[in-house]
Specification:
It contains ten helices and 25 strands. With 483 residues, the protein is an alpha/beta fold.
Length: 483
């Protein structure tokens, strides 16, 4: 991925259940390109257990992209298979790359139950068993009758899973580990062992499972033509799995297949450990940075802005970081809800869009709003920041993170990009100014605030320096005034 690539997560949790999203994506393709995006992350395209109501993470049939009458509908929440393929084509024709959301940790909505010997596990410590093994009725039989064996005759049974969280015989909700199975040991250590997340947990040590997922991955790429992946819940899947899966697909297809994984942890050491253990086959979302944004937005000016990048993937492994402000899991009402307050959003987006480190990902809910919760879009300032990333945020970066509230940086521009270069200043507290240098190339130039928050112009001195100003709780991006 090149510098200044910009991704959009093209969905939020509460999109209407109208099977119309693939059509919206296709119609929006030219606008997304013009806005400055280079990559589009689309939601899971396959049939979920809740059919047309499933956001896509309750995976039922990976081969049903909205083609078969299963789970009460032919289309998924987002539309039909043909509409999905048409959306990918339209995005490609607009010059955009497409990332598919891949969920391989679990399956849900089985077609039948099986009697399985299993042991209850302590939810707080999955390594601790609670009582002897007993027979349970587990939803683990996946036969996909609506698809009738098209694309794959593989049918799933209890031997392909390590556990479930529901005994249908006793109508009991607990975590059950199947007898003779072990949780994967190369997973996140939260809860003693965080292999199990939800549904029927795939056994990634079963060669039949791995072979089927390899076959499906190749089929999916050939069928859809997507360019790369967003990988769900990687902390719950044995760490070597995606090293194998991605390398196999890259070898078979001859494509780069860029990938970004979701490892949900505020601890940057956990993210770095995963990157190293998985052989650096992907990037990861910078979850620690998201939590810093959340804290800064709710600290009433008492967050130390000079340290906002400390302990983040952006600081520790910038070449492996995908930065974001919010996403479908952090929006209000969701399991990982940790929403960045609206006033801080322009500041946060300036920090991910106008710096060298990381690839930024803009959230659909920030760009288009979240009507379900009466949350409007960030608006004109986000559009302006996207344009600034596309046109101005180039060249050497000089940081001025030397104050508790007011911080900034300059991008010195590139001579072969006319108009490039900018000085960014922001504060979570009172307004003020900061002396920053743009370099002698800009000596005597007049600069203006491209966001319009500061109305005056500033003339740089003979060294290309000036006292750039910012209003309270705001951000300003100063650029050469060529009007």
């Amino acid at each position: 991925m090149n510098e200044n690539k910009t991704m959009i997560q093209y969905f939020e949790w509460y999109l209407p259940e109208d099977a119309g999203h693939w059509k919206r994506a296709a119609a929006d393709a030219a606008h997304l390109k013009e806005a400055g995006f280079t990559d589009v992350w689309l939601p899971p395209a396959y049939k979920g257990a809740q059919g047309k109501s499933d956001v896509g993470y309750g995976v039922y049939d990976l081969y049903d992209l909205g083609e078969f009458d299963q789970k009460g509908s032919v289309p998924t929440k987002y539309g039909t298979k043909d509409e999905y393929l048409a959306a990918v084509k339209a995005l490609h024709e607009a010059g955009l790359s497409v990332l598919a959301d891949i969920v391989l940790n679990h399956k849900m909505g089985a077609d039948g139950c099986e009697t399985v010997l299993a042991e209850e596990c302590d939810d707080a410590n999955r390594n601790e068993e609670e009582g002897p093994a007993q027979e349970i009725s587990a939803w683990t039989s996946f036969r996909f009758p609506g698809r009738g064996g098209k694309y794959s005759g593989f049918q799933w049974n209890h031997t392909h899973f390590t556990g479930v969280d529901w005994d249908d015989r006793r109508k009991k909700h607990e975590i059950f580990q199947f007898a003779g199975k072990e949780w994967d040991d190369e997973v996140d250590p939260e809860n003693g062992n965080y292999d199990y997340l939800m549904g029927a947990d795939l056994d990634m040590n079963n060669p039949e499972v791995v072979s089927e997922l390899d076959r499906w991955g190749e089929w999916y790429l050939n069928m859809t033509g997507v360019d790369g992946f967003r990988l769900d819940a990687v902390k719950h899947i044995r760490f070597p799995f995606y090293s194998h899966w991605l390398m196999e697909l890259r070898k078979k297809t001859g494509k780069r297949l860029p990938a970004v994984g979701e490892y949900w942890s505020p601890n940057v050491k956990s993210l770095i450990h995963y990157l190293d253990e998985s052989g650096l086959v992907m990037r990861l979302f910078d979850v620690p940075l998201h939590f810093h944004f959340v804290q800064a937005s709710s600290s009433n000016g008492c967050f130390d802005m000079s340290r906002i990048f400390d302990g983040t993937l952006t600081a520790e492994r910038p070449d492996r970081a995908v930065t974001f402000v919010d996403n479908h899991d952090t929006q209000p009402g969701q399991a990982l809800s940790s929403w960045v307050q609206g006033w801080f959003k322009p500041l946060a987006y300036a920090m991910i869009l106008l710096r060298r480190e990381g690839i930024p990902c803009v959230f659909y809910g920030d760009y288009y709003g979240v009507p379900h919760d009466h949350i409007g879009p960030v608006g004109a300032q986000l559009d302006a920041l996207l344009c600034l990333r596309r046109d101005a945020a180039y060249g050497e970066q000089i940081d001025y993170f030397d104050d508790y509230n007011i911080v900034g940086w300059t991008r010195l521009g590139e001579e072969d990009r006319p108009g490039s270069g900018c000085a960014v200043i922001l504060t979570d507290g009172p307004g003020g100014s900061k002396n920053m240098c743009m370099g002698a190339r800009f000596a005597g130039c007049a600069f203006r605030d491209a966001l319009g928050n500061q109305k005056q112009t500033i003339v740089l001195d003979e060294s290309g320096s000036a006292a750039f100003s910012v209003g309270g709780g705001s951000v300003s991006v100063w650029v050469p005034d060529v009007r």
